[in-house]
Here is the input.
Amino acid sequence: MSQACKILQASAKNIDLCVDLLRDEAVVGVPTETVYGLAGNALNDVSLQKIFEVKGRPMLDPLIVHFSSIEQAEIHAEFNERARALAAQFWPGALTLVLPKKDTISDLVTAALPSVAVRVPEHLIFRSLLERLDFPLAAPSANPFGYVSPTLAEHVVATLGDRILAVIDGGACKHGVESTIVDLRDPDAPKILRPGPLSAEQLGIQDAKMELKQSSNKLAQAAPGMLTQHYSPNTPITLFGHDEQPSNVQKSEAVLYNTKPAGKVAENTFWLSEGGDLTEIAHNLFMLIQKLDVRDYTQLKVERAEHVDIGIAVNDRLSRAAAK
Ligand code: TXA
Ligand code: MG
Here is the structure.
């Protein structure tokens, strides 16, 4: 079972190597501006099968397809004017659009749905692969199904290293949480299916539904695969309120605050940002959780983020990570 997965520096030679691997139907770990992806040829059923196998992902959970440009995306998805306007404003970037699919997209990608999720990523390494290939890349986050998404190449090796040949190193992912997914099949009623780096306000979308979901513990399944329990480390997570204190902390437990606490801090105390900056909190969230997950803590007690901007995405991931 063990094959050594190489962490490749992003040299021209290594990009060539990955282009060859992808043309040969292999799957490769790639950096994106959100989280690391597990990329394969989106127009090839053998590659698509491998993505599901490597991740241990149920076939009912559809994949996002990544393109080098909006023109490429329009070949495979049916755009409306509102989708074009959002794509023009936010691509390349952390926005995924769900649109009616065209016949070129296989049922394996969409879990047999008539819609497909599409995105033009910003990360230069990912873009250089897409520009070299004559097919788009399907890429879920490069973690075993249900586990925390990777934000470092090392995370990919630690969890999928015995199942893939290579991951390209792009350093720590800028955003640290997955893209915002917007259902734009009906241009007059756009819906945020997954909060992410781009907020409803930035996108100009009324987001009543998401508010409702956040206030409920039993999160509705807004999209296939958006399971209530997801992003879970092995160490159990419990949450405490923003700007509040956790109760009854044991030495065996770790506490994760948004902001560095004042004064002397205990050894089991950690923080996501010196000054409580929300983009920094998101950037560090999965990284710190994975770092602490391999220590011997019996529980991670994590402070919820302020519920605005990317803090909404942070709270979404935290709720799912803490769900039993
Ligand atoms: O930032 C990201 O989006 C990362 C990077 C690698 O691009 N990718 C990512 O993919 O998060 P993944 O597979 O972990 O999450 C994709 C989610 C699915 O679980 C599903 O909820 C939603 O996208 N999705 C995909 N196709 C859909 C469709 N046709 N309708 C509704 N939701 C869909
Ligand atoms: Mg994922």
